[in-house]
User: Fold these one by one.
Assistant:
Number 1:
Amino acid sequence: MSPAIFVDALQNELQSIQYGHSPAELYDPIRYIMSLGGKRMRPLMTLMATYLFTDDWQKAVRPALAVEVFHNFTLMHDDIMDQAPLRRNQPTVHEKWNGNVAILSGDVMLVNAYQLLLSVEGDKLKPALERFSRTAAEVCEGQQMDMNFETRWDVTEGEYIDMIRLKTSVLLGYALELGGLIAGAGETTRQHLYEGGMNIGVGFQLKDDLLDVYGDPAKFGKQVGGDIIANKKTFLLIEALQQAQGSVREELTDWLTKTTFDKAEKVQAVTAIYDQLGIRQLTESRITGYFDRGFANFDQVDADPDRKKLLIQFAHQLVERES
Amino acid sequence: MSPAIFVDALQNELQSIQYGHSPAELYDPIRYIMSLGGKRMRPLMTLMATYLFTDDWQKAVRPALAVEVFHNFTLMHDDIMDQAPLRRNQPTVHEKWNGNVAILSGDVMLVNAYQLLLSVEGDKLKPALERFSRTAAEVCEGQQMDMNFETRWDVTEGEYIDMIRLKTSVLLGYALELGGLIAGAGETTRQHLYEGGMNIGVGFQLKDDLLDVYGDPAKFGKQVGGDIIANKKTFLLIEALQQAQGSVREELTDWLTKTTFDKAEKVQAVTAIYDQLGIRQLTESRITGYFDRGFANFDQVDADPDRKKLLIQFAHQLVERES
């Protein structure tokens, strides 16, 4: 078994989804955002988790896509809230159409996600929906916390980790848990999968924050330093704000409050502050910590070692990724 | 049995719902919009439909509130799209907080609606969720059509009826169908309830359009003529635009395109055009037609006549209402 087979199955099923056609302003944006691509890592995780316990992983394809459609719904609405002009280098839905279209298309996508999840069979449907609903509410909580952080300069590491747990990690945890549930895995096993996904998810988001500053421009794909330019409250900035003292603190707050500046100069200066405070090493050590906890969770999952290898290799790719 | 007992049960259950607390910006707006009141007619319809077939209507209380929470979610998002400052004479959520809060709180409300619906028991859960999801998507389709109509002057009666069917009526149909489903009514019976709710719903919306122009100011509760002042594409305006010829048409389009005008004068002038074209009688005859069709649908429902009386009396109140 290779992950490519899972990816193909997901792509085929994605193309078969009938989102609806009329009015066009409601359904075209859904096809548009789903066509922008992405790694499809969440549904892939669901299939890998199902395959841990059964050969019949195909029955998880449609429910797995519920997680992907839900994820893209959050992107569509988050982009409105963040006034983001681009998503995967293409215009966002609220830019290409307008804000109202993005609100309403997103609403239908959330409904679509539930419709896809209704393909979970028998007595597994209710727990799948209950856990999905709880997770969906938590993702919204994380997004609201993220917005609340924008106007605060005293966010602690603990608060930041709580936020990314909710905004990003619970959905990765759910993706794995759902796969286990569909395959008939017991509650303890599902809990290990969920915790593993959560921990990998936190490491994944911290890696995202790290790459934005220390990524190789040739490999990163996006502009290195974008978060610094935008004053985005990443793990790195939060740690720097917690640690910086005296003249370093003054220099940092100076860069954060400047309204006109040379972008390259700001990126270079803030990166130098991070270097001075040892933020890179701290972030790398946290990333390793969360990924290690995730691997320890996966160790507890009672499944065929060869099949587990697929999941573990996938998680390793997430630690080692450079873009 | 009196409807007051249903209303009390709904109010008690509404107060027991735990929407969540943190972050406050996410959950306070939900409590706020749910506290603004409203007639709770949708969940009341669900309970009346359940009571048609069983004494155990209490098991429908929580699912019924799914319909109410969903309805209030649509109000929260529609108010953003319509830039409405007030809802039930109180500031709308996007005015009291901001647009982002209204988007995200609304998203969680949609999830909450599904969570409430998960209280439907056994093998009724899946059809309840499937039909709810289809209905929810249709309500979004109706809202998008309504927005599309804003920039068009050639909307036909058929298009308008299609729009209000989707935006308003399908949810009233679903409210009744859900009650029947929970009570164990068969598919044909549920279909009659759904169609009845749909037809009553179209009549209800047309009555809304009519009251805005011809309501008794002492009883109406809102400003009479509000739709005329705002150039809202109601049934009355659409009919007038379809029928007006020559100088009457010129006068009407003149009022519709004026940017400065005396409000009372515009209301009086457009109402006079409606009078001249017989729009009031036409609208009243359509309202009667849809309500009669709804009553005919209810006639087909095989249930205890005394219990049906409750539902029929309720529908009569909707025809005869003056506010």
Number 2:
Amino acid sequence: MTTVPTPQSSRPGDLSPEEFRAAAHAAVDWIADYLEHPERVPVRSRARPGDVTSALPASPPKHGEPLADMMADFERIILPGITHWNHPSFFAYFANSSTYPGILGELLTAGLNANAMMWITSPAATELEQVTLDWLRQLMGLQDGWFGQITDTASVSTFYALAAAREALGLDIRARGMAARHDLPTLRVYCSEHAHSSIDKAVIALGLGHDNLIKIPADEHFRMRPEALREAIATDLALGHLPMAVVPCIGTTSTTSVDPVPEIVRIAKEFDCWVHVDTAYAGPAAIVPELRYLLDGVEGADSMVVNPHKWLFTPVDCSVLYTKRPDALRQAFALLPEYLVTKDQDQVVNLMDYGIQLGRRFRALKLWMVLRAFGADGLAERIRFHCELARDFAGMVHFEGGWELTAPVPLSLVCFRYAPAHASEDAIASMNAAIMERVNAEGRAYLSHTKLNGKYTLRLAIGNIRTDRSHIEQVWSELRAAATAVAG
Amino acid sequence: MTTVPTPQSSRPGDLSPEEFRAAAHAAVDWIADYLEHPERVPVRSRARPGDVTSALPASPPKHGEPLADMMADFERIILPGITHWNHPSFFAYFANSSTYPGILGELLTAGLNANAMMWITSPAATELEQVTLDWLRQLMGLQDGWFGQITDTASVSTFYALAAAREALGLDIRARGMAARHDLPTLRVYCSEHAHSSIDKAVIALGLGHDNLIKIPADEHFRMRPEALREAIATDLALGHLPMAVVPCIGTTSTTSVDPVPEIVRIAKEFDCWVHVDTAYAGPAAIVPELRYLLDGVEGADSMVVNPHKWLFTPVDCSVLYTKRPDALRQAFALLPEYLVTKDQDQVVNLMDYGIQLGRRFRALKLWMVLRAFGADGLAERIRFHCELARDFAGMVHFEGGWELTAPVPLSLVCFRYAPAHASEDAIASMNAAIMERVNAEGRAYLSHTKLNGKYTLRLAIGNIRTDRSHIEQVWSELRAAATAVAG
């Protein structure tokens, strides 16, 4: 049977290629202009809640609209609602940046729309991911034997790692679950009191129970105390609990403190615990030869997360989960329904087998381009420079009366605050909150805060590739002016 | 204290903007050329395992390299390893496509590098996500009252939904976990035997146990049998298990069969089960007025996943999780460490509170652009056309001696096979596998397969925006030629 062919012109296909070329070239120029002058816009958006919503139609259009209209609305409606992570004076959370090679990679990824779920669904996507992550491993000075995969965020990387740790217990939790089992003890996970909330979320999601994440006290420099870890494990064993995993952090969120990984690994291994190292932010610093010591002890761990979308100049999202035990991840996650069976499946790596996501965007392309565009030396030089800037800023704070540093500065984050003599802790907290809000509202810099042993503390996180000394001096000047205004 | 300013020129900043402009404009033109002539390349990559790896250096470069070199290597090394999801004769899995507005959105997203983790970290990213998902809800004809969020994949959306269902039981699993509790029964989840593997992975990851995912038998049209669901729940209750959630599917992966959602919802609600509807592929079809009935009954569900990166012309990744019970998601996931406290947190939606990911790429931008560029009518027209093409192809198969349809064709997927008279089931399976491999190896079309009640079946999935009748006729001609060759 044959059908009468419909003329091809009747196909309701894609939009006009000319329109795309015009809009996309305009977007490239807009991005280039934007990144050449990132200081033209306020760092933190000045939008009030609902501003963007009320500027948009409440319902979708019935008919298609030109791409040029969208570019215009992007500038008119969206842009004022953007907080500019690309601004060189973005010092909040962990600063990051979109760089030219990363944007180029994202553009090509969007054009290809390849899916790295299986090897055959784009062999280059899977193989480039493996090669690029092996490059990154070498850059960080780690030995061979780490299997890498890209996920969207450190939260997912850590979640996968702890899922593998759970399955590696050999208790068949995959098949039988954890509820209503008389043979199953409580499973315990250990991290420092300064660990990131992603560890908490992973433990909760896995059904281990937030109560079973044991926060080990830190020392006066915010590092996990190994003897406290040993005590906690011993106590748990005495109570009949099963120690499952320890998650030390190299570069905590509040202060970038570094847990003593070699000692933690020794203790964890003594009790057969999985060790997952969270170095989402600080990992790339090991590319700098004189900072390589940061990863000391990591070779003894089972898994590690490092985020190129934080301090490695790669656009979000790009987190990397490394593991020495990929089989445990497969054991936790691999599933092969008939509709995904392929003839070559045993000769290749199918990355869908190492996590829950089936669809996998081709994220390796941008990371490959970033590593190539900067090279080992270029990456090291930029990261080193950020650490220098942080030390300089710390120096400014240290020598200024009425201000104090509240944590050591091992990397590119400075914890500090205004603390005039005789002010109460409550007064200091409200003054610093007011100072921060004043500076942030000005729009020339953006900081965030934390609390350290109950002390309200400002954080200056340096990580944007366009940050230079002038931005550090500018924010310091604004902070002092704000302090004068607030205190006066 | 002041430091001596370093001249700005000493800053090891970003690369040359001119180099970026040149490379990005070239990439735009490359993408436009590629998408105007997507048939120039073989659909399925011809790379052999290791081809891409061996063409790449084993170690990263020491010094930075020009972006132009990367564009050249992209074409020379990466491209031959790409399986072209943009090819109009990509009929495997669920076909999808990258469209001009989607690519434009991804480009701007990469340039901004905004993070929608909290409202303040880019108000427009959070608000545009809410508005765009409300547009999509309206397009699909759903009532008000659905809270939407974008995730990367349906696997994560479903995982979140079931995590919320688990917490909504009120058993404090978040805090106490599931192991070593005497008060906790086995928690059971129900889906059809044709449900997607993402349900299995979610149940495994949540620690519920794969054994506790009950696959309900389907009828002869591959739809969950409601009376079998009722029986399974009753049996479980008699055994002391706790029915937690039911996951009906609208558009299963193997055949796009549609479970009877209204009846399933009625039964589930009788037993206080959470209902999560998996309509990752088929949901957008409800934009077509005469297909709106597909979502009948969904209003009674608790959550639903629909993937714009499948049949809504949006580049991967973009999955949408809708729920009527956002508080349950918050209850399952929200956590507020001090370093994420903001002054306005109670007046705004902070999307980090509804899942495990903290970092959230600005994915709403591309979806907003797709919805605007095509408009309600344009989207409906294209989806309707794909269904027409599928019916036409089904007609060709139905009227051809020796071939048979193996499932109904409610949407844009055709299940069929070569089944000459008197051939055994084994012979049919190996002939069809050989036919598929022959066609796929030719490079002009790409199909995948499944098994239905043990019967090996080919799948022709139509979903690429550039597919027209000529591609359907071409693949049909290739299939018949391959059958002749294989059988002869």
Number 3:
Amino acid sequence: MSTLELVEAAAERLKGHARETPILSSPFLDELAGRRVLVKPECLQHTGSFKYRGAWSAISALDESVRQRGVIAYSSGNHAQGVAYAATQHGIASVVVMPADAPQLKIENTRALGAEVVLYDRADESREEIGETLATERGLTLIRPYDEPQVIAGQGTVGLELARQTHDLGVSEADVLICCGGGGLTAGISLALEGHAPGLRPRPCEPEGFDDVKRSLLTGQIQNNNAASGNICDAILTPQPGKITFPILKRLCGPGLAVTEQEALHAMALSFLRLKIVLEPGGAVSLASALFRKDEIEGDTVIVVASGGNTDPQVFAQALEFLT
Amino acid sequence: MSTLELVEAAAERLKGHARETPILSSPFLDELAGRRVLVKPECLQHTGSFKYRGAWSAISALDESVRQRGVIAYSSGNHAQGVAYAATQHGIASVVVMPADAPQLKIENTRALGAEVVLYDRADESREEIGETLATERGLTLIRPYDEPQVIAGQGTVGLELARQTHDLGVSEADVLICCGGGGLTAGISLALEGHAPGLRPRPCEPEGFDDVKRSLLTGQIQNNNAASGNICDAILTPQPGKITFPILKRLCGPGLAVTEQEALHAMALSFLRLKIVLEPGGAVSLASALFRKDEIEGDTVIVVASGGNTDPQVFAQALEFLT
């Protein structure tokens, strides 16, 4: 079960491995948002997203004998890189099952970080079947991207840092905007804040049209997205909130927020200009919510968890067009 | 006189104001450089460069009655923004004398940060004369960009942080590559490292053709650049090392390094891809030196001070072309 204690134990295991990311701000963003904006840039985490935290947490929590047999993950993106790198640093093997049509750069990066990449054909093959066969044959442990207590606990260490950092800045009440796919990051942060900064209210942020979490929170029941793809925020397109994460979100989160693709790109441009950080579209929906949904936010300070920066140069160049 | 004691006193005054920037790294950069690369991203500092540290240090060191009359600076770039913002935060007036043909965005930013911008015509007018007249009329204090002990002391706080951070990482011997214009940052860091991390050797990095510091160190005498402009690394084009900074550099620095414009742009692209930070060309010559001058560097670890990120989107888009 996911608890604050699991998050705190994960923080101990992550010490000296995950980076403590700073808090950034800019008077220009404050002006645009109509309130003070504090940004936690998880794009600066190892492998370019918060996913490294959950991967390290899950791998380091395994029994030594189990861990030595290696791990497996399905992902074409940030979770893949986090698992590959954390596994390599533990000196164990990792297998990542990726679609054959994934961007070449992501495949190369995942390989370079030490994983064996197994490609499958999205049309004809099931990644779950391939994964299960490999896991059984080789005794690999599956590291799920979000519906896994030790992964949630690792992501929750972002919340522990936030609680300490906002306390130092004298902020005790604020909405905390979090980019949300399956809900691992949001659930972990929510548990940490409940324990250490109860005046901070977590709120999931999503792309419009893929706002399953927002709608699930509104109705109190897990809702699905109509489509599985077709939005630039690829990192956070999941069909529905997780079975483990959703009850946590339902208990602890404020209402969800949703932004357009154009707003996510615009937020990327502004984070380039004002914060000097690189965000990917799915990592920028939280900042976009702060800037473009200000009437839906409460308080004189808003906290933004900018979750990742693994974007293609072409997409980034597209975002920069907002500045010209 | 510039001393370690001044740097330490500046650090006290900067506490709670300047950001402590983290240390970033990437296994991909390590691979390219042939050694471990630790990057200190001062682009994440307030106003997008280390210049805020020196500005805050100098303004906070003034006697209250002097400070209340306001400050003045000449600069079209990072120093202007640092002085404007630090002055506004101190609740005092600032005047920045800028060329009328400076990029509109930099003029607007400096104004938005609270400065009165006085424009002059590069061809017909002297910024020194305009500045002196204003300073005398209004009793403003001039904040020099580098040849000023309290500015050097403020920039030196980067070195104090580096000494502590590298100690925590177990690094006691390494070359420290520093983007160098007039030498304020390099001199300040050198003083801090001499006192707190004597195994770390500061080395100034410049653009080829504007390597006055490198040549001055080689000859032991202050050398000039042939041209005053005409290089993409605008933030670090100064005619010669400072009168106060050079003796410090001469006493404490290893040999200088120089890179091409293309190498600086390429380093910007790699910091986008691997570190998720935004560097400007003049802020990337240190990383470019680590990646493209590896035979001139000693040791199994190299430390890179990436000094700023105030680049135009057009220049950044040009850098991204290295990735396609």
